[in-house]
Design a protein that fits this description.
CATH topology: TIM Barrel
Number of helices: 8
Helix content: 25-40%
Number of strands: 8
Strand content: 15-25%
Structural class: alpha/beta
Shape: globular
CATH class: Alpha Beta
CATH architecture: Alpha-Beta Barrel
Largest sheet: 8 strands, parallel
Number of domains: 1
Length: 271
Amino acid sequence: MQWIDIGVNLTHESFALDRDAVIARAHAAGVTQMMVTGADLASSAAALQLAQTQPHTLFATAGVHPHHAASLESEHLPQLRALLSRPEVVAAGECGLDYYRNFSPRTAQLRAFEWQLELALECGKPLFLHQRDAHADFLAMLRGCAGAPLRGVAHCFTGGAAELDDYLALGLSIGITGWFCDERRGRHLAALVSRIPTQRLLLETDAPYLLPRDLRPPPAHRRNEPMHLPHIGAAVAAARGESSADCAAHTTAHARALFQLPQIAGLGAAS
């Protein structure tokens, strides 16, 4: 089995001392390709640089997370456009709206999101989207996009049936993380994942965040790693009534189609 982790924060400081070992453990678990998430201009450039060290295995996204939206000014857009023009950068984002924490003013979030939607369409890159407690504004902005039909993923989906239906109606794919394995917060997702078509389901760890709570034995630390993606995939597959092999096959095929990732020989065997 081959798995693709469409969202891992490999430039995070928690990976600074053992990043190569983390990548090697992921490969040994069958995670053959990973997308390194960019959250601001600096981390997007770092994600690109990291992706360039392992062609065909690591890829990058480039964008400004709503937490950092206040730092994005119009004079920065050429730099973001240049990042999005790189072939190693396969998605625009992480971008969107977050009214849960409001680390940036809502006006700044809306402005930054609008700019990034325009750049994604201009550069022909699918979107890597973030939304928390901002569904109405988020949906309105996506529906207001001109041009080609939307392509992208609702990253780390944790919403309810109505949000899922809205995203599927827009043509978005759905990213499921280790939140699914959290018996406190993710139980409702078990009834929803079977509603996601096979050509719309994607898997991600969002490492180092969202360590699956049902790992046994639990790790001594709280850092998530991409090697845990097959564990998430197995839980999702069970809820959908399919085998892990089938889940790996269709999520991998869809990730490659949406983000235009190349085929790659297996680097390990999924457990």
